[in-house]
Amino acid sequence: MAISFENALGVHPDALNFRVQRSKVLASNLANVDTPGYLARDLAFESVMKNTSSRVDTPPPQLDVSAKYRVPYQNSKTGNTVELGVEQAKFAQNNMDFQTSLTFMNMKFSGLAKAIEGR
Fold first, then answer.
1. What is said about its interaction partners and assembly (predicted)?
2. In-domain check, residue 1
3. Is this structure's pTM higher than 0.70?
4. How far is the C-alpha of 106 from the C-alpha of 114, rounded, in Å?
């Protein structure tokens, strides 16, 4: 009997992929904090995961990770919408979410290894 990793791992690989993509977007925002006219972007976890959870017995599609522009809490004179504190907080939260998803993946792999070994 073959093991289907798509069924065994659930949405966790997609969640990890999303977290990597989001960290790239947030790092770009942080790198451009002083660039005049730069517009901050972000990815919505809910919309991406909603698309992946609706698939059943189909090959995994590419994640739709199109970044949306973020509305700033306070406008700047230069037109830059990146707010350093907000970006740092979102980056840190994304890092913790990545670690959580990675922990779930490790637990899944550990469970699969125990099942294969018959423990």
1. The basal body constitutes a major portion of the flagellar organelle and consists of a number of rings mounted on a central rod.
2. no
3. yes
4. 12
